[in-house]
Amino acid sequence: MLALHPPDARDYIAPTGPANVLAVFWGFTLSKIDQAKIAKYTDVALRLANNFSDKDSFHYANGPEIGPLLERIQNSGASHHGGPVQGEGMFLAPFTQCLENVDIACVGVPLDKSANYDLSGPRQGPRALRFASAGQGEIHEPSGLNVFDASSIIDWGDVEFNIAEQSQAKHIERIAKIYRNFARRGISTFSVGGEHVSTYGVLKGLTLDGERPVALIHLDAHHNASGDQHGPRLNDSGFLRLATVKGLIDPEKSTQAGLRGRGLTGLEFSRETGMNIVTARNLQARGAGNVAEQIRKMVGNMPCYLTMDTSVLDCGVMPGTRLPVPFGLSAREVREFLDGLCGVNLIGADIMELSPQYDSACVSSALASGIGFEMLGLLSKASVSRKQYEAASQVDICPLGSRQLA
Question: pLDDT value at position 88?
Answer without folding.
Answer: 72
